[in-house]
Amino acid sequence: MADIAKDLTAGTVGGAAQLVCGHPFDTIKVKLQSQPTPAPGQLPKYSGAMDAVKQTIAAEGPRGLYKGMGAPLATVAAFNAVLFTARGQMEALLRSEPGAPLSVNQQVVCGAGAGVAVSFLACPTELIKCRLQAQSALADSGSASGATKYGGPMDVARHVLRSEGGTRGLFKGLVPTLAREVPGNAVMFGVYEGFKMFLAGGQDTSSLGRGSLIAAGGLAGGSFWLSVYPTDVVKSVIQVDDYKNPKFSGSIDAFKKILASEGVKGLYKGFGPAMARSVPANAACFLAYEVTRSSLG
Asked: Which residues contact 265 (CB under 8 A, 6 or more apart)?
């Protein structure tokens, strides 16, 4: 129980650090992912990441870059607590004896298990976040979903519960969420622990300094998105799709339609902001987690 409490606390602190550093990048990523495909001969709403930043600040002010942060901020403690606690419990199950170091392959398994656990919390949270982040990008699409205006996270939740199938509606996009979180976290934790071992010259990484932890965390975060980014695009478009007149019947249909209409590059919309966010945000997350965990003994 003591280890669980430490992972809960350290995961909470790490998640808060990650959110503060990374949310503006995430907002731009979602805007680029969810903007409607322009009609032939028409230009897209945003020509790129910097254009999305400029338009967002011009229309909504700097606060627009933090739109949708209420939902993940309200659940960041639970999300990262679940992620790091599930990983810690997986580690305990795989250890041959208490305190024994794990191999990189075992850390990959631990990351995958943690990914399953957090998916059920991440799905409704990200649906709310994506709706808020994407509504300005969808406003010119002429769709019903584009016309829906939300006043905040609770307004999104109430609308979905009332008009989109109740609780089930909050779990729209669960399949691509699982397809992102399970392999993504497997890769992230495997790279994180593997790179720490490389820097330490062995399995004992307890003597690594903060600079090494920052480097390992940044590399791990980048590896997460590099391995699963198209899945995240599919998740985003499904979660902001119109409930009454959907464009997509499911994950595979969304994947095929994006590929058919926009090519492979359509599956990487917003990739630049995602990568720009992942390195500093995950470096901050892992550093905050490790320092907090260490301070708790």
From this structure: none
